[in-house]
Amino acid sequence: MNDQTILIVDDEKNLLRALENLLTTEGYSVVTAGRGRDAIVLAKSRQPDLIVLDVMLPDMDGPQVAEELNGSPATKDIPIIFLTALLSKNEEKTKQSSGNNLVLAKPYEAENLINEIKKLLPEVIQKGD
To answer: Can you give the residue ranges of every domain in the chain?
Structure first.
C-alpha cells in the first residue's frame, strides 16, 4: 500500500466504480467525483497525486476543469489523464498531451492505464518495510 491518492472524475457511475476498484487493488487511495465543480473542490482540498478526468461531464467539460486546476498554484502540478470516448485507439497514440496531461481513449485498457499512472507517479518507497 502506498500513500498516493488518485482523484477519478466521471459521471458514469459504473465506470467510476470500476476505476475505483482497479486503482484500490493497485494500492492507491481513491477519491471520486461525478461533476467538474466537485472535482475542482476535491483537488484543491485533498491535493491528489494524479487525476483521471473524463472529458465530457454534465456541468463543465474536462478541459475546463483542467484549465482551472492548471491556473491554481495549489493544483497546477497535478498530472491529469483524460479519458474520452471522443477519441479512437489509433488517435490515442498521437494525442499525447504536453506537460503533465495525457489523453487515453475509452474504453480504456486497465493494464495500459496502470502503466501510464506508474510512469506519472514514481513508486513511493515505504520506510520500515
So the answer is: 5-120
